[in-house]
Design brief:
Blueprint (H helix, E strand, L loop, with lengths): L2 H11 L2 H8 L3 H15 L3 E7 L5 H9 L5 E4 L3 H4 L2 E4 L3 E7 L5 H16 L11 E7 L6 H11 L11 E6 L10 E2 L4 E2 L1 H22 L4 E4 L17 H11 L5 H5 L19 H9 L2 H4 L6 H9 L7 H16 L1
Helix pairs in contact: 1-13, 1-14, 3-14, 9-11, 11-13
The structure holds guanosine-5'-triphosphate and magnesium ion.
The site of magnesium ion has 2 residues, from helix 4.
């Protein structure tokens, strides 16, 4: 999308009422909004995805963001780290094996995870914004993953551990050995729904008992992929992105949403229906301190029309938003 069409789209997404409202904001409110957008332009978000072999890390990344465009690289020290790094420009995804392979490999993976969690950005802040630990929902043995969470990850999460960790229970379709899954609508039936809710609750409780933290858990299905065929549609992938965005710092949220997988529409079609997560994601893009003052979420509407899935062009898109807002403000 070029800047002119971005501006046009934006202009259309704002009603006259929104514009009047925005124009009526105080100078300091206007400055605050522009400052946040300016910061968002060059912000880089970092997400670490980890979990046991075969839990569905790659499938999840693919469903969330689409990896066709990803440049596959390696971690800082590939000989010892074994961490794949997907650099999408404004979003970097670190894909690390979890534990459970063999004692020697586990040591290696542990070291790699800790090293990544301790990395700092140019400002000296911890580099990784959010850690997504993926559990295989079809497996009964979660012991190894709890160990990974409480003994390896949590001690290295820094000051606000509850704001940096999320646990996803993947392969929801296989949680009851493939039974009670509605293949047509790509979601669990009532019985499996209850089973999954119980699973989420018990994982939350185990973590709470293990390290005292209240960590958000959610079940989803990235979607099974057969060799040579496209990946099956996902379930709850928009909910997963919503949870991720919720944990991401304010000025990095646009970076994450800009990478939302928009090539495969069905990826974001099926979820538990408790909320419209796509709308919730758009609402989350605007920091709370700004949403408070712009009751109509006018900016959210504008951003929602250009940011999701815009990819590396996010800087230009945000520039467009800034330009339009300036022309409305003054
Ligand atoms: N049924 C089902 N299968 C899935 C789902 N997600 C992933 N899979 C399958 O699980 C297998 C492993 O998925 P990957 O995404 O490669 O898992 P991974 O964690 O990246 O595996 P490693 O990189 O080898 O550690 C593949 O056959 C996927 O198609 C899901 O939601 N449901
Ligand atoms: Mg993988």
């Amino acid at each position: 999308m070029d800047v002119t069409s971005i501006l046009e789209t934006l202009n259309k997404s704002l009603s006259q009422r929104d514009k009047d409202y925005l124009r009526g904001l105080t100078e300091s409110q206007k400055e605050k909004i522009l400052k946040w957008l300016e910061e968002s332009k060059n912000a880089k978000a970092n997400i670490l995805v980890t979990g046991a072999t075969g839990c569905g890390k790659s499938s999840t990344i693919n469903a969330l963001f689409g990896m066709e465009k990803a440049v596959v690289g390696t971690g800082a020290d590939p000989m010892t780290m074994d961490i794949d790094k997907y650099d999408l420009g404004n979003l970097v995804i670190w894909d690390s094996p979890g534990l459970g392979d063999s004692p020697e490999k586990d040591e290696l993976h542990k070291k790699g995870i800790i090293q990544t969690l301790e990395e700092k950005d140019a400002q000296g802040n911890l580099l990784i914004d959010v850690v997504l630990v993926i559990l295989d929902g079809s497996s009964r043995d979660m012991g190894t993953s709890y160990g990974l969470i409480t003994d390896v990850i949590v001690p290295h999460l820094g000051k606000n551990p509850e704001k940096r960790l999320l646990v996803g229970i993947n392969q929801a379709d296989m949680a009851m050995k493939g039974k009670h899954w509605d293949d047509v609508n790509h979601k669990p039936d009532a019985e499996l729904g209850v089973f999954l809710a119980e699973k989420e609750r018990s994982v939350r409780q185990r973590i709470k008992e293990g390290c005292g933290l209240s960590i958000e858990t959610l079940s989803y299905a990235a979607g099974y992929k057969e060799e040579g065929k496209p990946q099956e549609p996902s379930y709850n992938i928009s909910k997963l992105l919503y949870y991720i965005v919720d944990l991401i710092p304010n000025n990095k949220r646009l970076a994450v949403v800009s990478q939302k997988n928009k090539n495969k529409k069905d990826r974001y079609t099926y979820d538990d229906g408790k909320k419209d997560y796509d709308i919730e994601i758009n609402n989350k893009m605007v920091p709370d301190y700004i949403e408070d003052i712009t009751t109509g979420a006018a900016i959210g509407a504008a951003l929602g029309s250009v940011i999701p899935g815009v990819g590396t062009a996010v800087g230009g898109a945000i520039g467009g938003v800034c330009g339009l807002l300036k022309s409305i403000f003054w």
